[in-house]
Amino acid sequence: MHPGIKLVIASSLTLLLLPGLAASAAPPDQKELKDVLHQLDVAAAGFHSTSANVEFDSIQTDPVYDKTVQTGTVKYKRNDKAFQMAVHFLTENGKSNPKDLTYSGGKGMLYEKLTDHLYVRDLTKYESYLLLGFGASGTQLADKWEITYLGTEPMMDGKTSVKTVKLELVAKDPDVRKLFPKVTIWVDPARAVSLKQIFDEGQGQSRISNYSNIKLNPSLSESDFTIKTDSKTQIMR
Questions:
Q1: Burial (CB count <10 Å: 0-12, 13-18, 19+), residue 45
Q2: pLDDT one-digit tens code per residue, 174-215
Q3: Would you kindly state where each structural domain of the chain is located, as residue ranges?
Q4: Which of 94, 97, 77, 98 is nearest to 86 (CA)?
Q5: Alpha carbon distance 29, 129 (integer Å)
């Protein structure tokens, strides 16, 4: 799988609402998780779209250390059970390297402007996982993830300090676990959005996503999710 297409999945799993089931005599961590899930479900009811600044750090520790930092903006739009996502990369390791990454209707696409290459991948199999990251109920997400509550931690959203909840997610689908054995997120339950995510890809590789200046329910158009190519664009499937 092309590294950029993995970013489609990683990016699309942001703004996660976290599931969980707790009994009346649940231990403290489970009670905290149950309270957080309730907040997320309430916030999810009003979720339609979002936009934010984003930084993606791709890190390799084995066999030698390497780090790639990409920055840009990200936009999400959800309508009933369908959603669209777009990441517009501007820089890579501090230098201009524009790329457009989109997901819509089961199709993930990555357009590298400097090479004029368009990578297309069918991600229908993973759509249920991607959809559940945007306004989903706790029960829906519980069908897909094993959740571990890891406490709270303050994080910055721009100049604002936000109290986040740290959770560890392990996909129940073995094919998803092959891509990402573990996902750790820092979620703001009041807005049902993630400020940070770490996607463990195994074998010494990981992706860290940091989101800032998050705006809820902005007005987004179809052009925000459309990749513009030309007659010379090479399409790689």
A1: exposed
A2: 988 988 899 898 988 888 888 998 999 988 999 999 999 999
A3: 3-236
A4: 77
A5: 25
